[in-house]
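#help-structures
NK: newbie question, is this the right format to request a structure? protein is YggT family protein
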Amino acid sequence: MILSTLIQAIAQILHMVISIYIWVVIIAALITWVRPDPFNPIVQTLYRLTEPVYAWVRRYIPTTVGGIDLAPLIIIFGLQFIDLFFVKLLFQLSASL
């Protein structure tokens, strides 16, 4: 009972963190369309949160197609896969305990 609740809580927190980070990626991608001030603290925070993940994806996959960077889209698809597969797997594991 306790282990089941713990796994379910971890799955719920993981789902929430993934959802928040997906929104951070979306906002960061939209902000790049308007050429923001690079010294703005919000822009710097978004850059610090997303650029390490973008760099990791760009290292393994060529993401620029026709001048458009597809790294945010690849990251969103990857996060959605993790959310739909692993988080659901954790919920099913907690239900079977």
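mod (FA): yep, format's fine, and the tokens are attached above. Helices lie at 2-31, 41-60, 71-96.
NK: thank you!
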